[in-house]
Design a protein that fits this description.
mainly alpha; 3 domains; 12 helices
């Protein structure tokens, strides 16, 4: 009888211990989520620095593949190549963009007002908007306010950009040192597996960045050339905006098309239709011909999943959340596939970015 009582007491003690551990873990997760919500912009800044380091490391690996040099000299060569490419592009297209971008900022509000006036003239729209004094101003003035706010926060954006570059530079100087210290946080039996996960996450991010670079170049150059042929002004600035926004999959091209359509509408309504057709053609070629041919091994996520992740990023962190949502999703998908589907469930899966 006494043995049964002792056994029951021991079982109760184990159950109580497990409940307390579970409560402690839940509390720890809650605390971490609380601090993460307070530091979300800092965490995004750090992740942007990691993404920058991955991009530079990709150039370093490319240099070492074709040149018989060590990593340190490959890093110096990679940084010089990046500076030369950026400097050459700046010297080539910088002066024209410096003229066109201020003109674009000035003409966008006028294009919005004209578009609103045209929409207001459609049957049934004018009656629905009679409750407002000036429907065009309701759209135009917020745009002006946003533009002035963007200009006033340029210094903050520049500071964040420099911080991202600084974080990326320090990380790429000695990535193994940071990886080894991160792996030490894991139990010894799981350290090798964690190292595999981190390595594959880095490779997946590199492949994703290459796919975005290909898309940005094709869309930017294609839009600029198409607008030049169509006679739309400020084609270089509009092409640059379209190319940069293509960094954001699926949503980016839609956002990039808006300034082009507005400026084309300001010239002639029929040009706006041609601009829409130009974007449809370029995006069709990019998604069905360019990317399949030039990026066979590149990382891509399902469109619906990507859009949902971007909307979630927008709700959590605004513009920065939208921009970094997809690469964060790439990292998360690799971790789930390797640590949960493979290790916990025991199923085989084609891990994102894994070599065949």
């Amino acid at each position: 009888m006494a043995d049964k009582e002792e056994s029951g007491t021991e079982t109760l003690s184990r159950y109580t211990r497990r409940v307390m551990i579970a409560i402690g873990l839940v509390a720890l997760v809650a605390v971490l989520l609380y601090f993460a919500s307070k530091l979300i912009h800092v965490l995004l800044l750090v992740f942007a620095g990691i993404l920058t380091a991955v991009a530079i490391d990709g150039v370093v690996r490319l240099c070492r593949r074709f040149l018989p040099i060590g990593r340190r000299w490959a890093l110096v060569t990679a940084l010089l190549l990046i500076c030369l490419v950026l400097g050459g592009l700046g010297a080539l297209i910088g002066p024209r963009l410096a003229e066109q971008l201020p003109q674009l900022v000035q003409q966008l509000p006028e294009a919005i007002r004209r578009l609103m006036a045209a929409v207001q003239g459609l049957p049934g729209v004018e009656a629905a908007l009679q409750q407002f004094d000036d429907p065009a101003s309701l759209v135009g003035q917020p745009v002006l306010d946003r533009l002035s706010t963007a200009i006033s926060t340029t210094f903050g954006a520049l500071t964040n950009f420099l911080l991202v570059l600084l974080i990326g530079f320090y990380l790429v100087l000695s990535p193994r040192q940071y990886l080894s210290r991160l792996v030490l946080l894991c139990p010894p039996a799981r350290r090798e597996r964690l190292h595999q996960v981190l390595s594959l996450q880095g490779r997946s991010l590199r492949l994703w960045l290459v796919s975005r670079l290909i898309s940005m170049l094709f869309v930017g150059v294609g839009v600029a050339l198409g607008l030049v042929i169509m006679g739309v002004p400020m084609a270089g600035a509009l092409g640059l905006i379209a190319g940069l926004l293509s960094f954001i999959p699926y949503l980016g091209p839609i956002l990039g098309a808006i300034p082009t359509i507005l400026i084309a509408f300001l010239e002639a309504p029929v040009l706006a239709l041609y601009a829409i057709g130009l974007y449809v053609i370029i995006e069709t070629l990019e998604s069905n011909i360019v990317m399949p041919l030039a990026a066979r091994e590149m990382v891509s996520l399902p469109p619906a999943f990507t859009v949902v992740v971007q909307l979630a990023g927008a709700a959590v962190a605004g513009v920065a959340g939208v921009m970094l949502a997809t690469p964060i999703a790439v990292v998360a998908v690799v971790a789930v596939q390797m640590l949960y589907i493979e290790d916990v469930l025991g199923d085989r899966v084609d891990v994102l970015g894994q070599r065949e």
